[in-house]
Predict the structure.
Amino acid sequence: MSTDNVLETISEITEFNDIKEFMNDPELDSALEAIIKIIAKPDIPPAAASILIIKLQAISSKLAILARYYTTLEKGEAASKKKNVYYTVSDSLDKLVAALKYGAK
């Protein structure tokens, strides 16, 4: 891994920590932790992948519901920021789950 890649990864992890502190959501933290682990070690055994797929898809569903909640019921600047984070992470998790499904085949 080159120095630039290491610095990028550290930057991403720092930004993930900022998201963790702002959102204060344990399932979101779990999803971000899984993403970091996958970045560090993308070779996931099929048995572990199937469990991870279910877990991440469940978290994605929860985040999508919360995004809709912050879109329709909660108002304010913090709610708008949380809504955007929830939508983005949910969409990204859906794509990650699709990749994991493909990789597990």
In short: The chain has a mean pLDDT of 90. The helical segments are 3-23, 26-40, 46-72, 77-104. The chain has one domain: 3-104. Residues 12 and 26 are 19 Å apart (CA to CA).
